[in-house]
Amino acid sequence: MLGGDDKTARAQAPAVDESDAAPESMADEVDGAYYRWLTASSGYQATFEAEDHILDLVRTLAADPSASAGLVPRIPELIPQLLRDLADDAVSAGDLARQVERDLVLVAEVIREANSAYYRPLQPVKSLDAALMMIGQNGLRMLLARIAFRPLITMQESGFARQAAPVIWNQSEKCALAASLMAPGLGAGVFEAYLAGLMQNLGLIVALRLAGQADASGKVPGSSQFGLRLLDVSRQLSAAIAGHWEFPQDVVDGIAGVGRLDATTLSAALVRGDQIAKLRLLLDAHVVDEDDVLVTDSLDNFERRCLGKIGALDSAR
């Protein structure tokens, strides 16, 4: 059953006719509900021509992500090397720990992570060594990646993209964790799935900036059908940016492969993680209830356990 806040959000969002809002699948239904909620405060009923113009702008940028430095952020020089170190199984936990030791901010982040509701230590963790033992090498890799990429999602300076960026980063974090939990059962790499989850929304932030610039009011089209198309093309932009930034090729392919017949196992983990994360946000915002068909018919038992597990993220950050 839809919650009261969802009714308010839908009342604020632009009206669309039934054919526009009709989903093709349960995944589309979740995406549509998420997009309506995300844009409820800034959505308007755009013409088809205006929507197509925005989508064409995103596609053009995806074909050459380096073409607009003002829209696609420049990656810090340290990130390609950090990615290689984090993805290299030959780099030991000790090597990563020595990198962390040199930065007091990172030390504090690692200890805070170990004490989070996600790990639930029996006693407070106070030392770096104990924290590293608690979260493990994979946990450290994920934490370092999250710290490195957070500014890239939240750096937008104005318009609706600035308002939406914290929400989208929240979804990215939850998607990354959910995708990493789904990965083993699908035969995908855990850390690679986590990276793909963090990265998949960067194109959406850029696309929302483009959409805001295309309208004099700075608002974005709010229809579900446009939202589904925008999520699709912006994910391709994310894959293009990931390739431009020299991400691992399987991560690039995983993002690009979502929705394709030749999708990789990483793509499958990303799809499921993305849906779980969106449902988590909709549940936390009281847009849907636990017994809503979007939850009960979208997720199997394991995925519902993942849905509960990522609920601890807000306590961890």
What topology does this entry show?
Blueprint (H helix, E strand, L loop, with lengths): L3 H9 L5 H4 L4 H13 L4 E2 L3 H16 L14 H10 L5 H9 L2 H11 L13 H27 L4 H28 L3 H10 L2 H13 L5 E2 L2 H21 L4 H8 L8 H20 L8 H4 L4 H9 L3 H4 L1
- Largest sheet, described in full? 2 strands, parallel
Sequence stretches where pLDDT stays below 50 over 5 or more residues: 1-23
Gyration radius over CA = 19 Å
| Shape estimate | globular
Strand proportion, as a percent range, falls in under 5%
Q: How much helix, percentage-wise, in residues?
A: 55-70%
In spatial order, strands of the major sheet run 1-2
Number of domains: 2
Mean pLDDT: 82
Terminal CA distance reads 30 Å
SS element count, helices: 17
Secondary-structure element string: HHHEHHHHHHHHEHHHHHH
- Kindly name the structural category: mainly alpha
Number of strands: 2
Task: For this entry, give a set of tags.
mainly alpha, single chain, about 325 residues, disordered N terminus, about 0% strand
Folded structure, characterized:
This protein has 317 residues and is mostly helical. It is built from 17 helices and 2 strands. α9 (159-186) packs across α14 and α11 packs across α12 (224-244). The protein is globular. The protein has helices at 4-12, 18-21, 26-38, 48-63, 78-87, 93-101, 104-114, 128-154, 159-186, 190-199, 202-214, 224-244, 249-256, 265-284, 293-296, 301-309, 313-316, and strands spanning 43-44, 220-221. The protein has 2 domains: 4-73 and 158-316, no CATH class; 75-154, no CATH class. A two-stranded parallel ribbon has the order 1-2. Residues 1-23 have low confidence and may be disordered.
